[in-house]
Amino acid sequence: MALSLPTSTRLAPATLLRGQGALVALVVLVAFAAFRYEGFFTLYNASTFFRYNAMFMLIAIGMTMVILTGGIDLSVGSVAAMTSVIAALASPHGAGVGLLAGVAAGAAIGLLNGLVITRLRVEPFIATLGTFLGARGIAQLASGQAAVSVDSSGGFARLGQGDWLGLPVPVVLVIVVFLAGLFLLRSTRTGRSIYCVGDNEDAARLMGFGVDQVKVLVYTISGLLAGVAGVVLAAQFGAGQPVEGVGWELTAIAGVVVGGTLLTGGRGSLFDTMVGVTLLGLIFNILNFENGKGVISIDVFWQNVIRGVFLLVVVILQSNSTRRKGE
Amino acid sequence: MTQDTLLVMSGIDKAFAGVPALRGASLHVGYGEVHALIGQNGAGKSTLLKILTGAYRKDNGTITFHGRSVDFSSPKQSQQGGIATIYQEVNLVRLQTVSENVLLGHEPRRFGVIDWRATHAKARRILRGINVEIDVTQPLENYSLAVQQMVAIARALALNARLVVMDEPTSSLDDREVETLFRVIRQLRDQGVSVIFVSHRLDELYTVCSHITVMRDGQTVHQGELSHLGKLQLVSSMLGRNAQDVVQEGRTGFERARPGDDVILDAQLLERAPRVHGVNLQVRRREVVGLAGLLGSGRTETARTVFAAEPPRGGEVRFKNRVVRWKTPHDAIRDGVAFSGEDRKQDGIIPDWSVRENLTLALLPRLTRAGIVNRAAQQRVVEKFARRLNVRCASYDQPIRELSGGNQQKVLLARWLCMNPDLLILDEPTRGIDVGAKAEIQRLISELAGEGLGVLMISSELEELIEGCHRVTVLRDGRPVASLQEGDLSESRVLSAMAHDAHQPTLESDAHEGQHHAGHD
């Protein structure tokens, strides 16, 4: 005799909204812009848009993994600035060397974050606040406080400005990282343990997962991807940028949250994060088009107000649905 | 030990900071046996279980499990050794799917890649084995706590556990869910898996368990077949009372005065699921009313419902002859109710603050004018009440954490008394207080009542209830099962009411009870 046990009946609207809200908003916004602005729905706009936003996407992928464990990584913006300088300094030795140097430097900071958090039991917020300051300092020291031009004879600049198979190289990087991340999170035990650690750390430990190893891993990945973003930054603008990347960590966190990943960990996906980052970027893009029409003029600083409202609405929806579960 | 014994724990000692929690405790569990473990708060059962599952290390003693001597150093180790623990608050990953919760870390893989289809199929198969048909691809949190427990059990099966420890698994389940759990427990038993079942609901123990271990004061005081032990005997051995004991007068500091006729609190048919069902309470002026019951009987919950810490969902509360609908403790306090909780450390004192500040915390709004505390008035209040309650401290500016438990409790009482309440609710007012201070507080309670307060007192100590109260209401499973007045009030009557139905309040009927249960199971 089988047992019919009741599922909770209160999941339908909240879950649907939480899962798809950002995607619905994105589709609506794209349709609206495509209809309203000439030149929006063009290859040129799309390619420019994604070439630039690729940097945020790379950072947000790492941030998603960190947040899935219930942590936070505030250092990524500074790390991107630092690695852009390091990559630019290394670029005369070849594009590959530049790429590797930037990525390795980023991963090293990430590893440091992970070790400080797990070994010294420092809160992620504090630990990454430390590297947030430290990496910025290194960027300024290594660059002599000025932009460091990348070597133009090698292929380094292609990493930011070039195309491959008809796609901007940064976008290719995002696709590769995204697919690899998707595979990691969905199909490996390590990936599942990332979710478990954020869901219930105690239970994850009891289930035999190495909680500390998982944390070290996600912060290292986050640093590494910030490194990739730094390389793209240097290549795209032709110079290492010691003062760039300010506030990127917050943009990435906003993208992750708007996508629907729980800040407390345990639930979320890379796809949602991509949607979230795209949505936030699109607000800026649309404001530019609107001003280009010349009918009304909106200060571009409105973009942050709109982003802020978006963020709040999403977080309020989220906390309402979790509160109901908690009752 | 015989070969059919799965677990033998013997001579287990454990002390925390020199204070013994276990003294030579033992626990024997046979293969395929459902074993009840019972004892009051602080009896040592959770310490014993934590040693078994590796959360604590023992100081002394031996543990043999499945023919091997073991000493687990972490819960993870004991789990790998074949012991699964299911807590009342299920310790799983709620946001992940049911399948993952059953199989995490053991998912079927192909070339290191999780095979989701096989994972879901395997989880479904294991759950079906215990008659649970649910969508395994849903997040665990979408299901009720009862189902979550089933999933935890399924995980235990997936990991080939030989022993499943269930720590109060039924405390948040409804009757139907409890039935389902019991069916699964019997299934486990039939598959040769042993179960240690901790519960305070005696009926449940008799329904599902075959053997029992009773603990008291860190020792094992009874072990054997449950059918040989009547309910009254069980409760007596748990509380350390011979049911025939004659109460010796004067062991406590209470001095009862004549209660008034003026009803302060009249609560009718209070409802607050899951622990308070149809409770009636009346407290008069100058009267001390006791709330008795075993752990989990709903004593604290009833008091909290009256105080509107968890406002009633049904029933009526009249306070000073007026129907009141308190929504928060603030409302109750405003009308003249004071509540001193069970856990001083958690709900009461602010350790680093001074005696003065702790004492006047609740009164502060009345001592404040334009946001500034009137120090002179504060000092008058502190002096009056600290003297009245005989609080012993070096100075009123001494941090309260430096005071003894008894004196901390007096400061807490003073905090409420200076509000000039009409009704004082006390949850275990003398727990963890040394003997001298205990008598002093008991005398205070009597005196305060004598001065016109109504007191509602929860206590686990029978003599406190018998000697201190004019009336005792006994709760069982959240329902009032007896109301005993002075004259009727005796240890054996309270014990009987705690143990079984109010219809059989006397000792004689226990003999029938015992026989009734012999031959059961």
What would you say about this model in short?
Chain A has 327 residues and is mainly α. Chain A is built from 13 helices and four strands. Chain B contains 19 helices and 24 strands.
How would you describe what is shown here?
The complex is a heterodimer of chains A (327) and B (521). In chain A, 73% of the residues lie in helices and 2% in strands. Chain A is mostly helical and 327 residues long. In chain A, strand 2 and strand 3 form a beta hairpin. Chain A is globular and about 60 Å long. Chain A starts with 11 loop residues before the first helix and ends with a helix. In chain B, helix 5 packs parallel to helix 6 and helix 8 crosses helix 18. With 521 residues, chain B is of the alpha/beta class. Chain B contains 19 helices and 24 strands. Helices cover 34% and strands 26% of the residues of chain B. In chain B, strands 6-9-10-3-11-12 form a six-stranded mixed beta sheet, sandwiched between helices. In chain B, strands 18-21-22-15-23-24 form a six-stranded mixed beta sheet, with helices on both faces. The C terminus of chain B is likely disordered. Chains A and B meet through helix 8 and helix 9 of A and helix 2, strand 8 and helix 5 of B.
